[in-house]
Amino acid sequence: MASAHPLWAISEVVLEVMKQSSDQRSLARWARVSRRFTDAALEVLWEKQTGLDRVLDLLPASFKRVEISMIGDEDEEGGEPDLKLYNFVLYDNIRDDEWARLEYYANFVRTYVSFEHDKVDALGVGLLIQKLSGRALFPRLKHLTWRRLLDTSSLFVIFLSPMLHRVRLEFLQAKIRRPDRGLGTIPTPVEYASSMALRMIQACAPMIKHIELRSSALPCLVENLRNFSHLQSLDLREVHNFWVVFDLCSSLASLQDLSIHLARPPGRGQNHPQANTRPTLTHPTLDSLTLTVPSELAELALDAVHTPKLRSLDLTSDAVQETWRSCAALVVSRFSGSLRNFRATIQDGVYDEDEQNSFHGWFSPLYALRELRKVVITSFFDTSFYYTTRDVETIASAWTNVQVLHLPAVQAAPDPLFSITALEAFARKCPYLKSLWMPLPDLQSFIEDPDSPMSVYTNVLEELRFLNGTCRPEIRQRCLEYLQRLFPSAHSILFDEDLDF
Fold first, then answer.
1. Which of 403, 343, 336, 408 is nearest to 370 (CA)?
2. Distance between CA atoms of 413 and 415, rounded to whole angstroms?
3. pTM here?
4. Interval 34-76: pLDDT, tens
5. 442: which DSSP letter?
């Protein structure tokens, strides 16, 4: 009988082979074929768990699945609904042999995502907590996503492994109306629960590095976040007290990546209650910042940021030209020495079918950022932009080191002032550009002068996408030939009609 290749004796090699297979049945066969492969196959099979059904199915003598409801309608042929929901009901003591089996498999779980429809009866919850005696159900768990109703979150405590590295936390509750006495100043039950959950996480996993939290950032939460001295990434959503967060982040010495999404107060267009405050975010090592703010706070927020090593900025705000132009100028004054990646998302303004916005008029201050490597600017359906050939020449001259350039592509029709020949500026002046997304330029030059000479360029562009416009079939091939000469390394040149949204 031939002996196995020596490589199969190396556990790291076996595990990597298993990771390349996404077929659950194949992995199960690997686990049964040899003891040498069992642990590696189970490591992949059990690495991520969504909900508790597979875990509690390991205790068939103790928990019974009881169907309680169905989500989705049965089809006309009597097929199954989209999703069946079950309640796990405790009906006997947990047997030692089944518990030992559960502990064996639980040791392989690294990522757990709660399933909000999981239901375990109260006696079952109590017995599981008692059985674990303060230990985590998954002792090697690294990533926890908890998104459940507060009233069904009793089992949260059993997922607090000392090896936790990343936590996404969102307690849900029935819709309630927050008291009007001050914006986000009165905690809800969910916010009290989130504050206590942070204390529990910090006590069990003090080395945690990444937290995503959907809450209003009230002081009771913020003070608990200060205790995470090793925190590197913080993502706060639905924030009401914006400036308390700035103060918090200034005290987190290890923080590298910060995301703040400010909840919009009722009464859009009114003066924001925090617009008259003057906070600051001072952090010597912050590398990445994401801000989602209403237009009345955008300039104030950027002006408050003092981060000399910031390399990536992601800004989302309303479609107000004056705000974006002022923000662009602030970005230059604050981060010109360090910024390499800039992303902007322009939320819809008031629709006006006759209004066309000049990209140059909104963002020309950014041309002073000569070392940008990635520029991604996105607008939605109600905010369209136009470009001229001169604009494209200016962009290419300013961002000669750019590698990814995605420009807002909403337009009613290709603008005659933006000829396809303007793309030669990118071919000549942007030697590192690899991905370019733009609105479809005007193709009239191919119709009027089909035999015009075409230059050949050398560059590294690989992907070119034209959005919001259709290339007419009779000139499509000539257009592709022209673009291939401009960008000989491009393996993907796509028009709107080629994209499957």
1. 336
2. 6
3. 0.84
4. 666 666 677 778 889 999 988 999 999 999 988 876 655 554 4
5. B
